What does this fold into?
Amino acid sequence: MESRGMKIWDLTVQVCLPTFTILGFLLTSLKLPQYGVISGLISQIFWASAAYRAWKEANQWGIVLTSIVATLIFIYGVINYWFL
It folds into this structure.
């Protein structure tokens, strides 16, 4: 049985994952990549949670690998646009 905290987290993931991902794509498309990479990096928190659950429940390791690589790319983007 799922705890109330897990239900709230699941709902948070379901809302924030597409919101921050789409916002990242939109900001990048609007020629604001410095903000797009921030939004994309925030979305990776929720992608990592969904990826971990998919891996544990259905042995979906591809989403875990993709999430790790995307996180590294977004970290590079943040460093590139905000610190260099």
Q: What stands out?
A: The mean pLDDT is 95.
